[in-house]
């Protein structure tokens, strides 16, 4: 059984095994996802995050809900691990670039310089849940774009596990979290269908487990094609690529993934990065950071996470079209 709804300006779907309380569980999952969106939407003036962006006072702790505190804390910790390639304080840059809105204009370097003066994750310090968040300079705009859907996946998946749901799939705008496959037959058929449509599909494992979900990864130059297929179970899957939102100006492509150190759209020699991780927020953040960093530095970040006990894997496509398992 499944439920579809609209959130995060995109299509969302939750599918679980059939059970008597299934409809109630699906509605609760949707409510969790919408609660996260309501709290973290930086474009909604009524959201808690927008209120913080507007009204915090530099140098004074700003009290936030437990949900927002936990989200910001994880984001700042991950920004440190990613060495700033993921930086949740780029909201001002994101709003000015407006990539995907149809504006299609390259920002002036002086404007970028001024915006960069109002960014930097080191200016944001989670104190504790009682005191809140301390931001030490004016003008910081916290952007949940590279982490919010992943965080919502985690809270929703945690609820499913509490309700002892063992088989299911969450899809929040292409950010996925999968439990075991609903049926072996369905998973196998989906797998075979992908191979028939694209003879060049590559796989992450020699022997695919039958109770895993088979997930196709879109080709960045032709989203109607599948460039690779991965197997996942009790994992999140997130892909970052240039084709999601972009514009072309004077023959150069500008994608929506910004490099926080330059304020410019990322140009790292990669076309697509897919990360599989134990948590949705990790997969969401790391796919973005890896894309910004490029392959060599991106691998270094994954190694740091692996040393801390996080199980990670993924697939990248280089600018020459070569597909590589990471």
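^ structure tokens above, recovered residues below v
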């Amino acid at each position: 059984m499944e439920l579809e709804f609209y959130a995060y300006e995109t299509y969302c779907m939750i599918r679980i095994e059939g059970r008597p309380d299934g409809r109630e569980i699906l509605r609760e999952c949707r409510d969790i996802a919408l609660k996260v969106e309501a709290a973290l939407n930086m474009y909604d003036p009524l959201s808690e995050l927008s209120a913080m962006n507007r009204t915090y006072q530099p140098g004074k702790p700003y009290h936030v809900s437990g949900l927002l505190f936990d989200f910001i804390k994880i984001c700042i910790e991950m920004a440190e691990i990613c060495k700033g390639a993921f930086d949740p304080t780029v909201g001002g840059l994101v709003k000015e670039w407006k990539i995907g809105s149809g504006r299609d204009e390259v920002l002036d370097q002086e404007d970028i310089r001024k915006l960069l003066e109002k960014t930097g994750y080191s200016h944001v310090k989670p104190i504790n849940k009682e005191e809140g968040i301390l931001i030490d300079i004016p003008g910081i705009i916290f952007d949940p774009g590279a982490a919010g859907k992943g965080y919502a996946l985690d809270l929703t998946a945690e609820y499913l596990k509490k309700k002892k749901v063992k088989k299911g799939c969450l899809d929040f705008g292409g950010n996925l979290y999968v439990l075991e496959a609903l049926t072996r037959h369905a998973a196998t058929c989906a797998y075979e269908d992908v191979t028939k449509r694209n003879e060049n599909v590559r796989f992450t494992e020699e022997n695919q487990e039958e109770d895993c979900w088979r997930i196709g990864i879109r080709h960045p130059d032709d989203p109607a094609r599948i460039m690779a297929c991965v197997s996942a179970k009790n994992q999140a899957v997130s892909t970052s690529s240039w084709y999601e939102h972009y514009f072309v100006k004077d023959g150069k492509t500008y994608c929506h993934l910004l490099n926080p150190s330059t304020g410019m759209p990322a140009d790292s020699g990669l076309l697509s990065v897919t990360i599989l991780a134990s948590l949705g927020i990790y997969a969401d953040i790391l796919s973005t950071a890896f894309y910004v960093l490029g392959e060599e530095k991106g691998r270094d970040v994954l190694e740091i996470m692996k040393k801390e006990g996080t199980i990670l894997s993924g697939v990248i496509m280089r600018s020459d079209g070569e597909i590589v398992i990471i």
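The chain has nine helices and 16 strands.
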